[in-house]
Design brief:
alpha/beta, 2 domains, 304 residues, seven-stranded mixed β-sheet, globular, Metallo-beta-lactamase, Chain A, 16 strands
C-alpha cells in the first residue's frame, strides 16, 4: 500500500506569497488525513494532486489561527459539494467546542455528520492497519504532537521451510502469510513455523508547534519521517523558544537523537524569503534534513 506525505502549507504565523500556513496531508491507500488546517487549506488542496472530498479525518495540533482557521471554509466547501461521508475532527481539549462554533456560523448547518473528539496526551485513534497517537507539545498553549504508525507486518515467508513441512504451494501459503494456521496431513502448521520476525510498518511523526521537547525523542524514535517546527535559524533561538517554537538546528538535534531517517523542516517564519540557510544549519547536525515547501510531496516506502 502506498503512502505519501503532501505538504500543503509550510509557513508559520500568517500566509506569505511563498508559503501558506500549516497543513500536512498523509495519503495512505484510500485514506486521506489532514494534520492542521490553517486558513486557505481548501485552496491548497484544490491546487494539489489530492481531492479534498476524500479527507476522512482531521487532526488539529492547537488553536492558534494558522493551524485551525481553515476548518469553517473547508467544511462549507464539503457541504456545497454534497458531501455525505462523516468527518472526524480530533484535537486538544476544546476541539468539540471549536467545532460547534465552526458549524454554527450564521445560518450554516452542515448536512453531513461531523464528530469532534477532544484528545488528551497519550490518546490513541485506531484506523484499519495503523494508529495515530499523541503527546503534549511544548508550546505557549495546550498543543499536541502526533505520530502515525502502521501495524507491524508479518515476517518474511520461508517457502523452502513450508514445503519441507508438507505445505503445498497455493492458497495455504497465503493463509499462513496472513497469520492463520493450516492443517496438512493431520498436522497443524502455525505461522511462526514459516514466518520470520515481524517487520515494522512505516512511522511518521509531526511535532506541531513546539520548542525542543525531550519527550518527542522517544515518541519519534526510528520514524521514517519527522516533520518538525523550524520557525527560525539559531541566531533567533531565544526568541523562537520564548514563543514556543524551535530553530532548524534544534529540530535537527531532535532528529539525530531520535534516530529518524528523514527530517522535514516546516512552520518557516515569513521573514525567510530564502530558507536555504535553515536547511544548511540543520544538515550540519543531521544530513537528511530538508526544508519543506508548499506542494512538496514525498513517498514513504516500506522497508524490505
Amino acid at each position: 500500500m502506498q503512502l505519501y506525505i503532501h505538504f500543503l502549507g509550510t509557513g508559520g504565523s500568517w500566509p506569505s506569497s511563498e508559503r501558506n500556513v500549516s497543513s500536512t496531508a498523509i495519503k495512505r491507500g484510500s485514506d486521506l488525513l489532514l494534520f492542521d488546517c490553517g486558513e486557505g487549506t481548501q485552496r491548497q488542496l484544490q491546487k494539489s494532486a489530492l481531492s479534498y472530498m476524500q479527507v476522512s479525518a482531521i487532526f488539529i495540533t492547537h488553536f492558534h489561527g494558522d493551524h485551525f482557521l481553515g476548518l469553517p471554509g473547508l467544511i462549507q466547501t464539503f457541504q456545497l459539494n454534497d458531501r455525505e461521508a462523516p468527518l472526524h475532527v480530533y484535537g486538544p481539549p476544546g476541539m468539540q467546542q471549536v467545532m460547534h462554533q465552526c458549524t454554527h456560523l450564521g445560518y450554516f448547518r452542515p448536512a453531513f455528520e461531523i464528530v469532534a473528539h477532544d484528545l488528551d496526551p497519550g490518546a490513541e485513534v485506531r484506523f484499519p492497519g495503523y494508529r495515530v497517537t499523541c503527546i503534549a507539545a511544548r508550546h505557549n498553549l495546550p498543543a499536541l504532537s502526533y505520530c502515525l504508525e502502521e501495524d507491524p507486518r508479518p515476517g518474511r515467508f520461508d517457502k523452502p521451510r513450508a514445503l519441507e513441512l508438507g505445505v503445498p504451494e497455493g492458497p495455504l501459503f497465503g493463509r499462513l502469510q496472513r497469520g492463520h494456521s493450516v492443517q496438512v496431513n493431520g498436522s497443524t502448521i502455525t505461522p511462526d513455523m514459516v514466518l520470520g520476525e515481524p517487520r515494522p510498518g512505516r512511522k511518521i511523526t509531526l511535532s506541531g508547534d513546539t520548542m525542543p521537547n525531550p519527550a518527542l525523542i522517544d515518541f519519534a524514535r526510528h520514524s521514517d519521517v519527522l516533520i518538525h517546527d523550524a520557525t527560525t535559524d539559531s541566531s533567533l533561538e531565544d526568541k523562537a523558544n520564548e514563543y514556543g517554537h524551535s530553530t532548524a538546528l534544534q529540530a535537527a538535534q531532535i532528529a539525530r537523537e531520535a534516530e529518524v531517517e528523514r527530517l522535514y523542516l516546516t512552520h518557516i517564519s515569513p521573514r525567510y524569503a530564502d530558507p536555504r540557510p535553515l536547511e544548511r544549519e540543520a544538515q550540519e547536525i543531521f544530513p537528511e534534513s530538508y526544508v519543506a515547501h508548499d506542494f512538496l510531496h514525498t513517498e514513504v516506502k516500506l522497508k524490505k
